[in-house]
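cron nightly-structures :: item 1 of 1
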Amino acid sequence: MRFARFIDGPSGTLFCTGYEHPEPVDGARAVIVIPPFAEELNKSRHVLSAIVRAIGSNGREVVLADLHGTGDSAGEFSEASVDGWRRDIDRIVEVFGRGRAVDLVALRFGALLAADAVARHPVEQLALLHPVADGKQQLTQMLRLRLAAGMTAGRGEESMADLKAMLANGDGVETGGYRLSSEMAAQLPALKLADIRLERVRRLAWFEIAAAADRPLMPVSQRLVDGWQSDCDVTAEALVGDQFWMTQEIAACDVLAERASEWMLQA
């Protein structure tokens, strides 16, 4: 049965959608889907919802949750922080995991948060969808968006150093229609996939989007995947499709939704 409801979170209510079943598949773990944030969330919700439908229609309990300050959950993005999102994920696992191991599916920056959560929770299966490799990369992307918008608006004199100085002084920065707080900016660079071990995970999937069928994984992706081969059973694939989280218009990516849900349902 499909549901949409709010749960109490550490910093306010968290909006959750998904499927729950009166008689779930025996021994099946709940699947928790962790999205990206800001405009990437808006551009990717339909793809993540397709994954939720595919998993839920096969008798698995599955939930897609908006973290604090994103989507329909309580709070403004300017109030969000990495540490706060960690606490949100802990709460979501507590509510839907019910003390059992869980499976995680996560896109972009959500994938970084999901991998980070492995140290705090028993995770059997972890599917990372075109992950952001580290928080510094995410921060740089957001600041570059501000600089590009500034040039268009005639603020060309602004520099990356200026923006970093504003954040260091405790000031927020408007970027892409969202206010990035100094707290968030300070916490982002500490998150790195390269620092995370996945020995506690039984199965790992890494799916990234490529422009052509003969494209290998990106070099940074291959290094990370190689480093985890000794930790768990690893599947790594490049799938041909549009990078839907950054297109101007909403773009489908059926191949990712189908492959991610198929992999998650294999065990």
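cron nightly-structures :: done
The mean pLDDT is 95.
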